[in-house]
Design goal:
- The structure holds 2 protein chains of 2 kinds.
- By secondary structure, chain A is mostly helical.
- Chain A has 15 helices and 4 strands.
- In chain A, the strands form 2 sheets. A two-stranded antiparallel sheet of chain A has the order 1-4. Chain A has a two-stranded antiparallel ribbon with strand order 2-3.
- The longest helix of chain A is centred in the last third of the chain and has 27 residues.
- Chain A is globular and about 65 Å long.
- In chain A, 48% of the residues are buried.
- Helices cover 73% and strands 1% of the residues of chain B.
- Chain B is mainly alpha-helical.
- Chain B has 11 helices and 2 strands, in the order ααααββααααααα.
- In chain B, α1 crosses α9, α2 crosses α8 and α5 crosses α6.
- Chain B has a single domain, classed as Orthogonal Bundle (ABC transporter involved in vitamin B12 uptake, BtuC), CATH 1.10.3470.
- The radius of gyration of chain B is 19 Å and the shape is globular.
- Classes of the chains: A mainly alpha, B mainly alpha.
Chain lengths: 340, 295
């Protein structure tokens, strides 16, 4: 299968494949991520970087689902919550005998398993119906977190679980936690990139462009949709486990409908169908929210205005908006290439 | 469980359901004109309630207070279309939806800034003395009757406008096929603006008439908006009758679910409503009265 040609139609398609990311860029990203804490002035800045990294992991998964497979999820916070609660409950209830790493892994597997079960019926729904279906699923999971007090302690939340440690070194500072999250983001980034450029990725793009065409070409549509749904849930579960250990506390409030919406906003603001856009979206929305929160009571008003303005001015998101601006600059230098 | 209790739950369920139905109708109108789900719909409800509460507290007669709230929000909804949706036309559906998410965050923030975080009470339209309905000893508050009556009158009026007037016919034509409507000379852009204004009107009216029962608070629109969206989907998105039917069904289920569930389980009442909705969707993926599934 070849990449789509650079025709006007292909350029308009939201799923147009960007040039394959070169491995060098991952090294650059790793280098920047590795050196970043040296440039950050205090623990608060590192704390924010960790929060961005955790959101980026979820958004990378959600972006695979929305940008490549074309399926919206308004219930992604539920999978983050499952991962976080699994890490917290296994870390406290069972007398602390379970390694916290195993608890995180259990959260990832549980998230994926739940996605595999609910995905079969849910992914039969299309468009806004799927959005509502995933929203309903997210609401139910959230209500269970609040109400099933025997397991989750309800709104009290859970704290005091064993911290993560590597070779006897406890990951109890912001900077140590940062490196764990940075490594996780890089791994998820490479995985996402590999998935996009694999057979699954090509099938997903085909599904997004035209489901009937993909179906008649022999693409097993429902299987690929389910696979991507499960992968995105696994990423969200991983992020949830990391979140639990970063915050040291879990509470149902963190995994409600508002957070699911925020994650979708990150995907769209960053730019659909672009792994770097996912990181950009997680970073910009997290930072803007945090910057405004500490300022004044009008912050939601400004946040809403900025969100609307960005979407009106750059409907394809920040990442692609910047890329388009660059290519427009380039084509202005070579006017003969503006054939369309 | 006595018959009178069931009748009581049915009355409050139908009241709540007609509110959901009115909000759902707002979703349906905008969906039909644009293909998007308007996440600011719940904030129309909030603002309608809060403005009416302030006007009534300032001494305005009740009908005037409601009217001021509805008129202001109708203008806000039209302004939203003019200021943010129109300039982004041609963008993908998800981009437009995120714009409405931005609008909802903005309006909710403004409501919190102007009215504060606390719930504000509102006088009932005509007293608080319960009226016996004569069915199994159930009683209703006058406000229940006001809500159901106003919703019925609004629905009938809209239906007549849709069938008898040229604008109504033009809107319905756009809902059936936007491109074909444009080809026969219907100003489709103006219909989009009108759909926003109308759903602002419906949402704010729903907020103003439910405020005496539920009070008004800056964040009341989140849950009401979600339930309205759920009702619109349950009935089959884009179908006005489906929207109202979905609302009534959801309200009744929720009320009965909360009332009849064993003690200690009432916290699950919202889960019941969503679970039933999911089951219906899984059995009928395009909603109860949905005409087709759009990808």
């Amino acid at each position: 299968m070849t990449e789509p040609r650079d025709t006007p139609e292909a350029r308009l398609s939201p799923t147009r494949a960007l040039p394959r990311t070169r491995p060098a860029w991952f090294l650059v990203a790793a280098l920047i991520a590795g050196l970043l804490p040296l440039g950050l002035s205090d623990d608060y800045a590192v704390h924010l970087a960790v929060a961005i990294g955790i959101n980026a992991i979820i958004v990378l998964g959600l972006n695979l689902l929305m940008g490549y497979a074309g399926q919206v999820s308004l219930g992604q916070a539920a999978f983050v919550g499952v991962g976080a609660y699994a890490a917290a409950i296994l870390g406290t209830k069972l007398g602390g005998h379970i390694s916290p790493w195993l608890a995180i892994l259990a959260g990832v597997l549980l998230s994926a398993a739940i996605a595999a079960v609910v995905g079969v019926p849910l992914l039969r729904l299309r468009g806004h119906y799927l959005a509502m279906g995933t929203l309903g699923f997210g609401m139910i999971v959230h209500i269970v977190m609040v109400q099933w007090e025997g397991l989750t302690t309800g709104t009290t939340g859970i704290s005091g679980f064993r911290p993560l440690s590597i070779a006897g070194v406890s990951l109890d500072t912001e900077t140590r936690m940062y490196y764990l999250v940075a490594v996780s983001v890089l791994l998820v980034l490479v995985m996402a990139s590999n998935i996009i450029n694999s057979r699954v990725g090509r099938a997903m793009r085909a599904v997004h462009t035209s489901e009937p065409a993909a179906g008649t070409s022999g693409v097993d549509i429902s299987r690929y949709k389910l696979q991507v749904f499960v992968i995105s849930a696994a990423f969200a579960g991983l992020a949830g486990g990391l979140y639990a250990h970063h915050a040291g506390y879990v509470n149902p409030d963190s995994f409600g409908f508002g957070y699911s919406i925020q994650l979708v906003v990150m995907v769209v603001i960053g730019g659909m169908a672009s792994i770097w856009g996912a990181i950009f979206g997680a970073g910009s929305v997290t930072l803007l929210g945090e910057y405004l929160r500490s300022r004044q009571e009008l912050s939601p008003v400004i946040f809403g205005l900025v969100l609307m303005a960005v979407m009106v001015l750059l409907p394809d998101g920040l990442w692609r908006g910047a890329a388009n601006a660059l290519s427009r600059l380039r084509s202005r230098r070579r006017p003969e290439s503006e054939a369309s | 469980m006595t018959a009178s209790a069931v009748a009581q739950y049915l009355v409050s369920g139908l009241t709540l359901g007609s509110i959901y139905g009115m909000i759902a109708l707002g979703f349906a109108l905008i969906y039909n004109a644009t293909g998007i789900v308007n996440f600011a719909q719940g904030e129309f409800v909030t603002l309608g309630a809060l403005i009416a509460i302030s006007c009534s507290a300032a001494g305005l007669p009740m009908p005037l207070a409601v009217l001021v709230g509805v008129a202001t929000v109708t203008l806000i909804a039209a302004a939203l279309e003019w200021g943010a949706i129109r300039p982004a036309r041609g963008a993908s559906v998800i981009t437009l939806i995120v714009i409405t998410i931005g609008a909802s965050i903005l309006l909710r923030g403004a409501a919190m800034w102007l009215w504060g975080p606390d719930a504000l009470p509102m006088r009932s339209f005509s007293g608080e003395t319960p009226i016996s309905v004569g069915i199994a000893g159930a009683t209703v508050l006058p406000q229940h009757l006001w809500v159901i009556g106003i919703v019925v009158v609004t629905m009938v009026t809209l239906r007549l406008l849709g069938e008898r007037t040229q604008v109504g016919k033009a809107m319905r034509a756009c809902a059936v096929n936007r491109d074909a409507a444009r080809l026969v000379g219907i100003p489709a852009e103006r219909m989009v603006r009108l759909s926003f204004a109308l759903s602002g009107l419906l949402g704010s009216l729903a907020g103003a008439i439910v405020a005496p029962l539920a009070m008004g608070q800056y964040n009341m629109g989140i849950m009401l908006g979600l339930k309205g969206f759920a009702a619109a989907i349950l009935g089959g998105i884009g179908n006005p009758f489906g929207a109202v039917l979905g609302g009534l069904l959801l309200g009744t289920l929720e009320s009965l679910g909360a009332g009849l569930s064993p003690s200690g389980w009432s916290g699950y009442k919202d889960a019941i409503a969503f679970a039933v909705m999911l089951l219906v969707l899984l059995a009928k993926p395009s909603g109860l009265l949905g005409r087709r599934v759009t990808a």
